[in-house]
Structure prediction request, 605 residues.
Amino acid sequence: MKALTSLRMIFRYWLHNRRDFAIYATLQILATVLLLFIPSFVADIVASLDLTESVSQWATPDSLLFNLVVILALATLSFLVSRTARITGARIAARSIYYVRKDIQDAIYRQSFSYFDKIETGQLIARATSDVDQVDPLFGMGIVMGFQSVFQLVGVIFAVWLLAAMFSVWEFAWIFTIFIPASLIGSLYLTAKLRPIYLESREAFGALTSTIRENIVGTQVVRMFGTQAKELGKFSSNNKRFYDASVKSTKFNSIFMPFNFMLLGGMILLTLFIGGNLILNNGMDLAILLTVQSYVTIVIFPLVMLGQLFIMYVQADAALTRIREVLESTPSIVEDAHPISAKSIRGEVTFDHVAFGYTPSNRVLNDITFHVTAGTQIAILGTTGSGKSTIINLLPRFYDVNDGHILVDGIDVKKYKLQDLRRHIGVVSQDVFLFDKSIKENIALGKDDATMEEIVHAATIADIIDFIETLPDKYDTRVGERGMDLSGGQKQRLSIARALVIRPKILILDDSTSSVDVETEYKIQQALEEVMRDTTTIIITQRISTIRNADQIMVLDKGRVVGLGTHEELIQSNVLYRQIYETLLKKQKKLIAVPESGTKEGSLV
Prediction:
């Protein structure tokens, strides 16, 4: 997307409905024209009430009633037209903000995982909420008052020059031509000084939001480690940064009104001084001075309003700049120009000399090559930081490989339509996220048309059905924010049910039973056997029973494959596998007593 300036961005959203915008602009021009006719009739009335001889070329006492009626008609018509324009402008502004929010949400959803690795959640929340609130007044006041002010200023300058041409009073034309731009230039200069201050203010607010969010989400950790004072210091630092930026902006902001009123006062005095001299020395008609003075009165509102709009713009510009950073961010995962639609897949997976790093300078995986036949299981073991979870992040294209290829059914995953590829891959991670919805909605998250029978079946396999049946609202029970009303094991089993309900052809289990007890894990494994017969399963686990029963086992160390084979093969030939296996075996024996008769618990070993 071509980079947009803030002003172009504003117009882009205003012009979302060009018909409404054209109607609004036409109405504002008409209202301005009607308003500019009024001063000449007011001047005529004042002149007609003057008892001196021949003070007006065109005014007579008999014209008083006519002029009053015309003024009333023009004012009423100008009010009605202006009101209609404002209503239309308000509708345009509301629609603009609606699409800004929508585009931000769409932009966030289309981003790749790597985007969220680089930007803080608090900053994103601030841009989608407070930054949009910051620009909301500009979209409204900008179109409702901005255009009216610009049209009135242009109209007044044109009217005064026309008056000057008709009566050879060029002095007035130059007063308006000099003072109005001087006021606008001064306002623009001050806004230029304010811009970096407001940008700092928005960045400080984003940092403040991130700190508050971290302290709310991580409140248990903060209290557990007694770091309240440290976190309070961090909050105070960000709060002070925001405060300092706010005070600086207020100092510059306070100059606008006095500056504009000083210029307007000078404009009024100069108009009266020059006009008085022209009347006394050149016999200029009093009505001309009154008309010009009326135009001076008219320009007070648009000049003050534009000064405020400049402030509003520079405030909003900082927020708009941050919003544009989201809107213009391009996802690193890009779909092929002509993607392959995969209505169904077998589930055959091949990693062909794959290399990957989250940053260019730090490779996590190097030359990873392995093949998983459709419908079989592979268990992945390795030391901490060996790249186990990274492998399963690459298969659904959460990230793209730096070198090599990942194939599903012999086709590079980059060739598939992303939505189709991910529809066939079920992922159960150790870190479970649940939405504040009902149990039924959480299980059916990946399949909107899931039947109740499918939901119950998935819950049965995940061994969560007995718990659900004890709840008063059963499947309609809300789980709370992030599943806070559930235990760790219950959340993990719901996550398993959520992955199973889509009937994936590739199932990824990333330590998915780490939060359940041994007996529950046994039940889940027994139930999963039926699913795994037709499903390619990639498992990262610490449970040795799962490892031993896998069709093949891959051992990773420092991002490289150092072992690949069955349990029997690796226990004999691979030193690292044997060490990991023996360590896990000792751990598990401490957790459970192994009955001699080989009960369910014993079968886990």
